[in-house]
Specification:
This protein has helices spanning about 1-30, 35-50, 60-80, 95-105, 105-115, 120-155, 160-165, 175-190, 200-205, 215-240, 250-270, 275-305. With about 300 residues, it is mainly α. The protein has one domain (about 1-305). The chain starts with a helix and ends with a helix.
Length: about 300
């Protein structure tokens, strides 16, 4: 029963977090003088999509087209359960929690591929192949970036990784791993400047070109929720999770997560959108070698910090 209640709290918090991320994006876009509009626009946009007609394009695959948003949202909800909001405040804590988190990103990729392929349209098909290339290219650097904290904590449990940072957060001696992780997080959520698969001016909406109404809203919620979860996992891996003085543990986790999300969204505003060839070159030619270097450095530093004892 406690696990069920905690799971429901985590999912409810995720919905609130999605709204907060939408407000944060509007604040960065409109500026601090438009605070009221920043809080109102996400609600107005959601209501507008809810009232739009849910159109099924001619020739589209009925099952794949209609199921893709629900697959994406279900995957996000399941991954949220292994994020520890505090000591013993987690949906469930398998000994391979981080592995579970990474593996569940694969069905999210399937949902995106189904969305583009099922439209039976040129724009959606081109965007699907482009998105597939991006998602495949992020997987290896993403996994390697997460290996650093696992090596240091000697555990795949998300709670154990947080507990192992009681003396020193991993960001202090694994900044390269954090940087690679954040790049990969932007890749998988198609955030600027890696959003050319969704570029409205180039591919007319990309993977979501033929989506409208509530199903488009579900996809937007899923992407924002996944971005929030990846920021939360970044806090678990590199910023000590819920740890902090004075304030309650869940509040520390929330503050760190939104601080990291705000920093990432703010920093990417100043970077122009990258071309597909630039995105793939960044992943395979820079992030992949850097992630291998990071693993080597983390291994050496772990031996030095532990004195060679496991």
């Amino acid at each position: 029963m406690n696990t069920l209640i905690t799971s429901l709290l985590v999912l409810a918090g995720l919905l609130v977090g999605v709204y907060a991320i939408a407000v944060l994006q509007q604040l960065l876009l409109l500026g601090p003088r438009q605070v009221g509009a920043a809080f109102q626009l996400p609600i107005a946009q959601a209501l507008l999509l809810l009232h739009q007609e849910d159109v099924l394009p001619a020739g589209a695959d009925f099952f794949l087209f209609r199921s893709a948003p629900f697959i994406a949202l279900s995957v996000v909800a399941l991954t949220a359960l292994v994020l520890p909001l505090g000591p013993r405040l987690i949906g469930f804590d398998p000994s391979i929690g981080l592995f579970y988190f990474i593996v569940l990103l694969s069905p999210f990729v399937v949902a995106m591929m189904n969305a583009g392929w099922s439209q039976n349209a040129k724009v959606g098909l081109f965007a699907t192949f482009r998105a597939a290339a991006y998602l495949i290219s992020y997987e290896v650097p993403f996994g390697f970036a997460a290996i650093g904290p696992v090596m240091a904590a000697q555990s795949l449990s998300t709670e154990r990784i947080v507990q192992s940072q009681a003396g020193l957060w991993y960001v202090v001696w694994q900044p390269l791993g954090l940087l690679i992780y954040l790049f990969a997080a932007l890749f998988v959520t198609f955030r600027h400047p890696f959003d050319s698969a969704m570029a409205g001016s180039e591919l007319e909406g990309g993977v979501f070109a033929e989506y409208s109404g509530p199903r488009l809203l579900l996809f937007k919620v899923a992407l924002d929720a996944l971005f929030l979860l990846l920021m939360g996992m970044g806090v678990v891996l590199f910023f000590g999770g819920w740890q902090g003085p004075f304030l309650p543990a869940p509040l520390w986790f929330v503050l760190k997560t939104f601080a990291l999300a705000a920093l990432v969204l703010w920093a990417t505003r100043f970077v122009p959108r990258l071309r597909p060839d630039q995105i793939l070159s960044l992943s395979w030619k820079i992030l992949l070698p850097a992630s291998l270097l990071n693993i080597t450095l983390v291994g050496i530093l772990t031996l030095l910090l532990t004195g060679g004892n496991p």
